């Protein structure tokens, strides 16, 4: 049952896109299922091109991978069609017939509600579309003429692939601390973002998953309002080289040092079996493009070992640069 769930540990933007694109190429993924919606952007750098994906699964870089959008996902039709064009995946992408649709009015509501503005939402209409689904008045993918060629039964396809021993990855979006249930409510997104929720959105039961890969970034970032332990000033973030802007909205990201207590919480709630650690080269520039654990400086190894000691799970995949292949892979 080779089924892996990938989830973010903190407030999203841990670099899941990069890790997924690496696994797609390295492990020759057969199926990748995208959950969540267009509030999240997964960045993939491959062959000199940069993709900021809001809908298409980040595993598209492996040309034989079947790409699916889960029934629990929310589809923005124009964005979906645009990305399908850009990534040239028309013949291998499917959308679950019950995925729900983000309409123009949802984005307008998201951008004009004083309450949502205060939370600092991405303004992409995801929260209002989920409200509409909960009211049972939402449009679904099967109601949309442009989506007819793509309609699929994602739960059936995914379960069949797992049962056939294929290599399946469930692509979580955002991070645990943005979870509607487990995050810093009310400063959260409109859904649960934990590993169980990713399975639920796809329609895969907990007994079918054998690997939960939790993605940490070497420091933390947060976009939008809400508590953020250890937050640095923008000046300090710039001085350290940690200052980022959001891939989706272009907003400034707040930043803070890695927090071990939050990391432990993310391991617990996600039932994580192993971790990926991204942007190690931002924290320790001498690690840039390193390909083996042995070549890392002592101080860097100590940081990784501290994460393993405190969380109790191995750090198996380490990102040392933006390209999909800038990775140290310590998996057996
Ligand atoms: P919403 O998901 O657009 O409703 O925004 C709610 C909160 O989640 C805001 O603080 C957003 O900045 C944050 N958020 C939503 N999606 C992402 C993401 O993919 N990365 C980082 N922050 C996100
Ligand atoms: Mg992102």
Describe, in short, the structure shown.
The chain has 332 residues and is an alpha/beta fold.
Strand order of the largest sheet: 9-7-5-2-10-1-11-15-16-17
Total strands: the figure is 17
Total helical segments: 11
Could you tell me the mean pLDDT?
97
> Spans of 5+ residues with little confidence (pLDDT < 50)?
none
Give the overall shape.
globular
Please report the distance between the alpha carbons of the first and last residues.
17 Å
Task: Classify the helix fraction into a percent range.
Answer: 25-40%
Radius of gyration: 19 Å
Structural class by secondary-structure content: alpha/beta
SSE arrangement, N to C: EHEEEEEHEEHHHEHEHEEHEEHEHHEE
What ligand species are in this complex? inosinic acid, magnesium ion
Largest sheet data: 10 strands, mixed
Instruction: Please report which band the strand proportion falls in: under 5%, 5-15%, 15-25%, 25-35%, 35-45% or over 45%.
Output: 15-25%
């Amino acid at each position: 049952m080779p089924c892996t769930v990938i989830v973010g540990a903190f407030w999203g933007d841990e670099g899941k896109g990069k890790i997924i694109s690496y696994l797609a190429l390295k492990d020759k993924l057969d199926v990748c299922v995208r959950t969540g919606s267009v509030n999240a952007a997964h960045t993939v750098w491959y062959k000199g091109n940069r993709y900021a994906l809001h809908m298409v699964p980040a595993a598209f870089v492996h040309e034989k991978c079947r790409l699916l959008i889960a029934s629990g996902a929310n589809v923005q039709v124009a964005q979906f069609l645009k990305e399908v064009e850009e990534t040239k995946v028309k013949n291998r992408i499917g959308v679950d017939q019950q995925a729900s649709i983000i309409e123009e009015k949802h984005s307008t509501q998201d951008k004009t509600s004083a309450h949502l503005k205060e939370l600092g939402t991405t303004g992409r209409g995801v929260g209002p579309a989920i409200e509409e689904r909960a009211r049972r008045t939402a449009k679904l993918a099967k109601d949309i003429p442009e989506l007819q060629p793509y309609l699929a039964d994602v739960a059936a396809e995914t379960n069949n692939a797992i049962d056939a021993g294929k290599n399946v990855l469930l692509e979580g979006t955002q991070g645990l601390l943005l979870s509607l249930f487990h995050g810093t409510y009310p400063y959260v997104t409109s859904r649960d973002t934990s590993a169980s929720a990713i399975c639920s959105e796809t329609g895969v039961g907990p007994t079918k998953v054998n690997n939960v890969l939790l993605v940490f970034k070497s420091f933390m970032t947060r976009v939008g309002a809400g508590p953020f332990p250890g937050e640095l000033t923008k000046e300090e973030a710039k001085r350290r080289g940690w200052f980022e802007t959001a891939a989706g909205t272009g907003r400034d990201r707040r930043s803070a040092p890695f927090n071990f207590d939050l990391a432990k919480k993310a391991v617990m709630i996600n039932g994580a079996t192993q971790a990926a650690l991204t942007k190690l080269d931002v924290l320790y520039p001498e690690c840039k493009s390193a390909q083996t654990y042995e070549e890392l400086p002592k101080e860097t190894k100590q940081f990784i070992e501290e994460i393993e000691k405190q969380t109790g799970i191995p750090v198996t995949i380490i990102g040392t640069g933006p390209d999909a292949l800038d990775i140290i892979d310590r998996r057996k």
